[in-house]
Design a protein that fits this description.
This protein is α/β, with parallel strands linked by helices. The protein contains 27 helices and 27 strands. Helix 12 crosses helix 21 and helix 13 packs antiparallel against helix 15.
């Protein structure tokens, strides 16, 4: 399988490699050649070793010592701790193939003294297929996505391997960008032929950190469909949804890629169709400007998601993030979610009890995924058992409550929790309270669960007691008080004394058989000790082997109900999201929005959810100033003027965020809200450049504005802030003027347009549905007070110099700027600003 590296480091063997390879290195090279583009973790005993250029590339990333053996560079990491090192390589852009020992070295020796241990690559680790907790964020999905092109349209399929449900959508070229911004995949697989198409270069460059290129042959739609049909054992995919040819191709490649990287067929849930227009389209620029899931600096703290996420479980947090990233466009679906939140908002006691239970619930979904991929351990079984116990308690609570107050939606969701009493009881009997991380460490099956295992353990432990007794016997017989019976992996159990005491044992060769002489001590064995060692070893090996068998059977019992358990995961997450949003609504005084298919957009006393939460945490406890917004038919385009810092940008953003919250099925921060469904949300707020692509701040502004004007429909919501400010005054005014007219006449969407250009207010005479509003300020003794209140009207001044003064510009600069402004305001007729408009002035001293 060809998995290209994201880095430029070559992983080919050096040209000066000796032609005569040792058997082990020949085995290594065969596996390396079969997996180009991957670092090869080659299992040698207790270490994964890397050789040649793999070692040269990985050592500095892993911060491990680079050594040499026969001029071959090498480095390695302990097998038991490899998960701590893996994220470093994946984040650095590497893919890792794990070559595991497929048999015990002792078993290999039985076939001959020079026989190699069989090794095979059991897994290829890529950014989208990682399942280790050390790499994944507990409260965020890690999606693997595949993009395909067939029949003149694009298909996208994506899946979180730890969740197991593939989603499939078709999209236009413009819609594809919004869809990818919504999914935000950790890895995106695309055909390598895109590199040859110039119009795709920017697309590839923007996503290079997540990109994997595969041969075009793998994207053949007929072969891809065959793989999908084989995966689900059906003759048609129609039972799962109406998938386009491109969507089916993407799904097939996704299934194929998962199987190839996992080296096994993975049990996936049935695919779900995600129509392009089923969710509010939000492009990457808008998501960034609105800070939906992360701030402009890349932090989750300060984002809308962070402000609303009070979920109790990791699964609930991931579901909440998914719903926020893809607000619904179907009124019925929105209403179902709102009805559930409404129900829990009115049931404080039930809501509190459910949330208290969920806070004790482990991450069932990811534990189940690891078990399904044969990467789970005893602790995953324990987590699953604990989650099932939470589900059972939650089911009992809901059953009791439903007897008094039946609720069809709640009862349907309760049924999804399932009944796993027998499975949970079995796991409870099987597992000890304290469990090892790795299955191979043994010691995790509780006493009494398996009489045969108890017998082996007793034999093993009793043999150890016999060895302790034998040591005491030898101490008494030899009069050597510090004689010890020790054990190591090389020579097993042995008697050890200091060199000065060795003569006493060497004088009794029929009893003490010399094994090894070291500087620190001399080692012996005895016939009696060798016999006991066989008993201990055999009992220990048999105990561990039986534990492994029991573990495998327990996993089989769990995975036999995999589909039902996936439904339970979804139900637990749904309860978490609904009760959390209800808690949010009650504690923060949010209202239930009215959502329909009209063009209404009427917000009474709306508030910015993030800013309000920040103010509530502030020591001063300042209250947020609420504002109305009505983008109805008679005022569908608002022109908002006023100075900086007066709250224009906050006002614009809060209305966009309220729309997103309402359509994800949440209450909203307002006194009342009536919203017609928004099909696409656009935001052009703030200023930033894109130096990597040679774009100035103004160019970025124009590119984002162009995307809005070219794509917004009558059902869209657009917020635009200070369009045209990145260029000369008259150029900027002209662009802003034309943009307002285009939005009004052509797009005919609901829009909030903030500007410093007061001249734009003259458009009110030509555009009847344009509404002029201003962010109010109050002047007091030469200073201004920002009221953060938006009312109908027009700002007559920008107050820029006052803002500059607040920012800390030196007093002489403020005084000079005020004088210049007064001179320019007296000049009639506008026109170009010239030196004759103001008197020259030299500052007396350089500023320090």
């Amino acid at each position: 399988m060809n998995l290209p590296m994201k880095t430029q480091a070559s992983l080919a063997l050096p040209l000066d490699l000796p032609t005569a390879l040792t058997p082990v290195m020949a085995q290594y090279q065969r596996l390396k050649d079969a997996h180009p583009g991957c670092l090869l973790f080659f299992r040698l005993g207790d270490f994964y070793e890397l050789f040649h250029d793999d070692a040269l590339s990985a050592a500095p990333v892993l911060d491990v010592a680079l050594t040499k053996r026969e001029d071959v560079p090498m480095c390695g990491v302990p097998v038991h701790a490899y998960e701590a090192y893996l994220p470093k390589l994946i984040r650095a852009g590497f893919r890792v193939a794990i070559a595991e020992q497929m048999e015990d070295p002792d078993a290999a020796k039985k076939r001959g003294t020079r026989v190699l241990v069989d090794r095979q690559v059991v897994r290829i680790i890529t950014p989208g297929t990682v399942t280790e907790d050390s790499f994944l964020e507990a409260r965020a999905n890690n999606y693997l996505a595949v993009m395909a092109l067939a029949g003149g349209e694009f298909g996208l399929a994506w899946c979180d391997l730890c969740e197991g449900t593939p989603y499939v959508a078709s999209a236009s070229r413009e819609g594809l960008n919004a869809l990818l911004a919504r999914v935000n995949p950790g890895e995106l697989v695309v055909p390598e032929t895109l590199r040859e198409k110039e119009d795709w270069h920017e697309f590839l460059r923007e996503r290079r950190d997540a990109l994997t290129l595969l041969p075009q042959s793998r994207f053949d739609s007929a072969n891809a469909e065959a793989r999908a049909l084989s995966q689900y054992g059906v003759k048609s995919l129609e039972a799962f949804g109406n998938f386009s040819r491109a969507g089916t191709a993407a799904l097939g490649v996704l299934i194929d890629y998962i199987a190839l990287t996992q080296k096994q067929k993975v049990n996936l849930n049935p695919p779900q169709a995600a129509a392009e227009k089923s969710a509010m389209a939000i492009d990457a620029a808008t998501r960034r400007n609105l800070e939906l899931t992360q701030t402009l600096s890349g932090s989750r703290k300060g984002s809308l998601l962070e402000a609303i996420d009070i979920t109790c479980t990791s699964g609930g947090a991931r579901l909440l993030a998914d719903q926020l990233c893809a607000p619904l466009c179907e009124v019925a679906g929105i209403e179902r979610r709102l009805q559930r939140v409404d129900f829990f908002a009115g049931q404080a006691d039930l809501r509190g009890k459910i949330r208290a239970l969920l806070k004790t619930c482990p991450d069932l979904s990811r534990a189940l995924a690891r078990l399904a991929l044969s990467r789970g351990g005893p602790r995953d079984l324990a987590a699953l058992r604990a989650a099932l116990e939470v589900g059972a308690q939650l089911g009992t609570l809901l059953d009791t409550w439903a007897k008094a107050k039946p609720n069809a939606d709640l009862q349907a969701l309760r049924r999804e929790l399932g009944d796993y009493a027998a499975l949970a009881e079995k796991l409870g009997r099987a597992l000890k309270p304290d469990l090892p991380i790795l299955t191979r460490d043994g010691g995790f099956i509780a006493a009494g669960f398996s009489p045969a295992l108890d017998e082996f353990i007793t034999l093993r432990d009793d043999s150890k007691k016999l060895i302790a007794g034998l040591q005491a016997k030898y101490v008494a017989a030899t009069k050597i008080a510090n004689l010890r019976i020790r054990h190591n992996q090389v020579i097993g159990y042995h008697v050890e004394v200091t060199p000065t005491q060795a003569d006493r044992l060497l004088s009794q060769p029929k009893i003490f058989i010399h094994r090894q002489t070291l500087q620190s001590g001399v080692r012996f064995t005895t016939t009696e000790l060798a016999g006991l060692e066989r008993k201990v070893s055999e009992a220990g090996d048999k105990a561990l082997a039986l534990e492994m068998e029991i573990f495998a059977q327990l996993c089989e019992d769990v995975l036999a109900r995999n589909d039902n358990l996936r439904a339970t995961c979804a139900a637990l997450a749904s309860f978490d999201v609904a009760t959390s949003l209800a808690e949010l609504a009650v504690t923060r005084r949010w209202c239930r929005p009215r959502v329909d298919d009209s063009h209404a957009f009427h917000i009474e006393k709306g508030r910015h959810p993030v800013v309000e939460a920040a103010l509530a945490l502030a020591a001063a406890g300042e209250a947020f100033t609420a504002n109305d917004c009505n983008l109805g038919a008679e005022s569908r385009l608002w022109l908002v003027t006023g100075p900086n810092m007066a709250g224009k940008s906050t006002f614009l953003r809060q209305n966009a965020l309220i729309a997103a919250l309402a359509q994800m099925g949440s209450y909203v921060p307002a006194q009342a809200a009536h919203l017609g469904v928004v099909d696409r949300l656009f935001s052009r707020v703030g200023a930033a450049d894109d130096l990597a692509r040679g774009r100035s701040t103004f160019m970025v502004e124009m590119v984002e504005t162009a995307a809005i004007l070219n794509q917004a429909s009558e059902k869209s919501l657009v917020i635009l802030d200070e369009i045209g400010r990145g260029t000369a005054t008259f150029d900027g005014l002209s662009i802003a003027w034309a943009a307002v007219e285009y939005l009004y006449h052509h797009n005919r969407c609901r829009a909030l347009f903030a500007a410093h250009y007061h001249e734009l207010t003259a458009l009110k005479e030509q555009l009847p549905a344009l509404y002029c509003a201003t962010a109010l300020v109050r002047e007091w003794e030469g200073n201004i007070i920002f009221l953060h209140e938006v009312k109908g009207g027009v700002a007559d001044r920008s107050y820029g110099i006052h803002v500059a003064q607040l920012a800390g510009l030196p007093g002489p600069v403020i005084t000079r700027a005020t004088g210049i402004l007064q001179a320019l305001e007296k000049k009639e007729g506008g026109g170009k600003i010239t030196l004759s408009a103001v008197q020259p002035r030299d500052f007396e001293k350089p500023l320090r």
